[in-house]
């Protein structure tokens, strides 16, 4: 049997719900992505709750809520405790995304699904990998290798490659073939004929016009400029630290080019922290950004035209006038974008510019599906400090609770003290002495007795008892316990007024501080309450959708899948219509084994190939001659299959003499490199008609393809043409020297 592979969707099939999938490889359970959406509906996570305790490892592909938003809740409520793997940007920006989600909701509701501590706890043990890094699992996962590769959708976004016994399982969702300002395109096309490919159908029905990126960016900024020129404001609902990075670079470049003075604001609870971290992730970005930094030390995210804000109060202080605000959340369900939409929607001069499809069931999706003019009902909530009788009642309740806690703690302490100091009258331990009894030897000290009660003195005469004490004992429970001085925890509690919010480290292993304002919000213990009211908003502003999602469209997806040509294909995450459409296409043009499972439906995609594990016997290996090939060593082996004493299949030396075999040439010759090699040997050489002309008579041609359709390495031949002369044999020897012969 081949490597056993089972796939079970936990969320995100036949719809656009969050992504979460259970992939079992030879009994080792991977949870690939652990997403939630901006509605934070716990019912979506029920399938995850049933398998969380059996998860052996978690792989995260992207840093947004749809791919990792449920991680803190699952670890807190479901007992998910498996190690987590991601790239560094997915870890850092994912953490900031969850902070922004929590703070956005805590300011307008009694949000209790998870806390900042839960977020820190979930992310504190994430193992961060670099692109193309092979990470070998141990223990139960022995023999499994995982490696992240470029996805191209978000910074640090990952196509996961899982390898076991030479078979590849590829998880590639939300990938993007197109190179953008801050990201390179995906490397998915570099994988050929994997055993299993798990991919999404999200964009299967979305075919974008073949428009160059420069033209697309020009349309984007022209749309914004027209609104600003007419005196309107532009609101871009964005994610916390994902696609917004591309938008910032597009705006920054255009403002610099046109010398525009309209202010641009990036408004989230963690905007400053986001940009600070992004500045240090240049090696994860596009080749153009990395090259620019190497040559001129120019960091693309030293934004000169964008002001970073972390509270709406800062924005309210900005003078009136046209402005551009990029504010989270993209769904308009919460955060600053929700409040700004309510304020600006009634003005016909304003523009709400959506750059991604809203999540299903959210305000953004509703507005995109049914554009204005229209009236929408929204809930406006805000947190206000308690005053008057409410504050008095709150303080009285807190005092009552503190007294109850203090009394309870005192009773517990007293019980513990009694339990640890009451003598055991049945004990025969010679060290146990009743401290209430007077000892004759001490009474005999006369007036000096009180001075020397608690020390041993010369001439001490033990009492006439069967067992003499070694040390005197006196009860001193008011100040000491069995191990030394009693510690009062209250002495070590810092008062709120002594705490400096700006100096508080928040964010667990963030190696830095959050914005001072964000830290103040976290540490704010002022008694408060949430007040809400329903408003009817007359939407008169313009609403426009322009695709900046950073995903490959339907045509591109089909082309990539045909090139990769997996042996088995599993489709997830997409509407029912899109999933069925892509399934039928792939059955005809990609591979005969295409699956689209339902929630909690387990499908077996084990390879049809027969594979066996065999041990190389010591007797065989002792006579093998290896040749160095770069970082590896290779050898030709003639052997026969047998069984060892423990009945394991083993390769043993053949009993008869080894049959002759044709020479095997190992290596990959690049004609350009060989041209330089011949020139260094004094041979006159040049390219002519796709062939290499060597000297006066000999020509080398390379025929065949190293990446032929259908997979494998294809066939390659190098043909030497020319008369049998001295030059012919000399060049042939030079050619053979570039290979390894077995």
From TrEMBL:
GO molecular function, one term: RNA binding
Gene3D superfamilies according to UniProt: Ribonuclease Z/Hydroxyacylglutathione hydrolase-like
Residue ranges, annotated region (Disordered): 414-447
SUPFAM superfamilies: Metallo-hydrolase/oxidoreductase
Record's subcellular location: Nucleus
Residues annotated as domain Beta-Casp: 244-367
Signal peptide: none
Keywords noted in UniProt: mRNA processing, Nucleus, RNA-binding
Keyword Nucleus: yes
One Pfam family hit: CPSF100_C
Chief location category: nucleus
Listed GO CC annotations: cytoplasm; mRNA cleavage and polyadenylation specificity factor complex
GO annotation, biological process: mRNA 3'-end processing by stem-loop binding and cleavage; regulatory ncRNA-mediated post-transcriptional gene silencing
Keyword Ligase assigned: no
Domain annotation Metallo-beta-lactamase: ranges: 17-224
Family affiliation: Belongs to the metallo-beta-lactamase superfamily. RNA-metabolizing metallo-beta-lactamase-like family. CPSF2/YSH1 subfamily.
PANTHER family in the record: CLEAVAGE AND POLYADENYLATION SPECIFICITY FACTOR SUBUNIT 2 (PTHR45922:SF1)
Protein's name according to its UniProt entry: Cleavage and polyadenylation specificity factor subunit 2
Native source species: Corchorus capsularis (Jute)
